[in-house]
Specification:
alpha+beta; Rossmann fold; eight-stranded mixed sheet; 15 helices; elongated; binds adenosine-5'-triphosphate; binds magnesium ion
């Protein structure tokens, strides 16, 4: 036998034991998005590398070391597997002039790729669901998005997800803060680690995001961006908070919350849990009022978030509410291959009424004994067996046998009048 080929490290197969929970989450999200007037967008998984370099910022973790970038050998183009979807959505919105008749509420679901060290909750192919609102600048949109995510947690039955909020202000305010920050870190240059020194002049804000315990107290005492916000930025932030508080949504203002991409301004937020160890951020987002312009569109404000499906579902699993695949309503037991043309017609009629039926399938020895078929029917979890026995079949009937209640009641029903009895089989 040839060597087994395995999946790429950090990229996982999703098997039926788990895929039902994914579909359950996706269905819930689709429903919620519809309730809020968000429409689905699907963009390519491969984008020009320049989109991410320009969109996310050159000195971000993602662009510096996490992107799967390759050259298209056929034409020499530099391409990247998308590490996130906001840049692609913005590109599509600009490319198709989608804002010409007003703002848009969009959502997406799909795989993202980052070359990280794989561990629980951190993969190289992972999956995000994201919501983006483009063309509206008001704080009520920030609040709507945060509330939408918040509703999702409660619909999923999750309780231990807390919200952290910050404002990154506007570019001019950030520039002022940046200078103050550089001055502060320069005055404490000996306390900086190598990473921080490298970022001191390129991206000092990211130093605040350090995970190095030795730098915590230094970072604690750094000038806070919040103190550099002007009147308007401050008001925007306060209005978001006011709306959230009026809905009973609790949050903590975290002045050190800066997020990993450069494109954010004003509101940024994260939903965090303590139940997933160090991979505790389940959802993050914020305003990105300058990204559309940066990607070549007419300037327009925007705000959005993205959640990690793997982390959210891990939290669902942890909460003990893992949804199981529902069994079929009925299992069809067939005694003779000759019955199939008619049986298949009956099964189709049942399915049209909404009864889910799994049919027995033949093996090397034909359909198999009645006993072995009943075993399969039981294992399928179906509530009923439809027994197409030879004699009944010839009389135009099928036996419906309950598999759940005790020894199983059995009654004969006419093959020709499926609609009369089918709905009784539905779970
Ligand atoms: P982290 O700080 O954990 O690396 P991030 O700030 O890089 O997260 P974002 O780029 O904001 O994450 O992506 C939004 C969400 O996508 C995260 O909150 C997380 O739930 C999920 N996510 C990000 N990277 C991964 C990954 N490598 N594997 C699984 N989920 C991920
Ligand atoms: Mg990351």
């Amino acid at each position: 036998m040839a060597d087994k080929l395995l999946a790429v490290k950090g990229m996982n197969d999703l098997l039926p034991a788990d895929s039902h929970a994914w579909e359950w989450l996706e269905d819930l999200v689709r429903h919620l998005m519809r309730l809020h007037g968000y429409r689905n967008i699907r963009t390519p998984i491969v984008e020009p590398t320049a989109l991410f370099v320009r969109g996310l910022g050159e000195v971000t973790d993602i662009v510096e070391k996490e992107m799967y970038t390759f050259v298209d050998h056929l034409n020499g183009e530099k391409l990247t597997l998308r590490p996130e979807a906001t840049a692609g959505v913005v590109r599509a919105v600009v490319e198709h002039s989608m804002l010409y008749d007003g703002g848009k509420r969009l959502y997406y679901m799909g795989p993202m790729f980052r070359h990280e060290r794989p561990q629980k909750g951190r993969y190289r192919q992972f999956h995000q669901i994201g919501a983006e609102v483009l063309g509206f600048g008001g704080p009520e949109v920030d609040a709507e998005l945060i509330l939408l995510a918040h509703r999702l947690w409660s619909n999923l039955g999750l309780q231990d997800v807390r919200l952290e909020l910050n404002s990154l202000g506007q570019p001019a305010e950030r520039a002022e803060h940046r200078s103050a920050l550089i001055a502060y870190f320069e005055a404490n240059i000996n306390a900086l680690d190598e990473d921080a020194r490298r970022r001191l002049h390129s991206n000092p804000l990211r130093i605040l995001d350090t995970k190095n315990p030795a730098m915590q107290s230094l970072v604690e005492g750094a000038p806070k961006l919040m103190d550099f916000l002007g009147e308007e930025s401050r008001r925007h932030f306060e209005q978001v908070g006011e709306i959230l508080r009026a809905q009973g949504v609790e949050y903590r203002v975290n002045p050190r919350l800066v997020r990993g991409m450069d494109y954010y301004n004003l509101t940024v937020f994260e939903f965090i849990t303590d139940r997933l160890g160090s991979q505790g951020t389940v959802c993050g987002g914020g305003r990105y009022d300058y990204l559309i312009e940066q990607i070549g569109g007419k300037p327009a404000p925007a705000v959005g978030w993205a959640l990690g499906i793997e982390r959210v579902l891990e939290l669902v699993r942890e909460s003990g509410r893992w949804p199981q695949t529902p069994p079929p309503d009925a299992y069809a037991i067939v005694t003779d291959m000759k019955q199939w043309p008619v049986v298949m017609r009956v099964l189709t009629a049942l399915r049209e009424i909404g009864v889910s039926v799994q049919m027995h399938a033949s093996g090397p020895q034909g359909m198999g004994s009645m006993k072995s078929q009943f075993k399969k029917a039981d294992a399928s979890g179906a509530a009923y067996a439809l027994v197409f026995g030879q004699q009944e079949f010839e009389q135009g009937q099928v036996a419906v046998k309950s598999l759940r209640d005790g020894q199983g009641e059995q009654r004969l029903v006419p093959l020709a009048a499926v609609a009369h009895w089918a709905s009784e089989l539905k779970a």
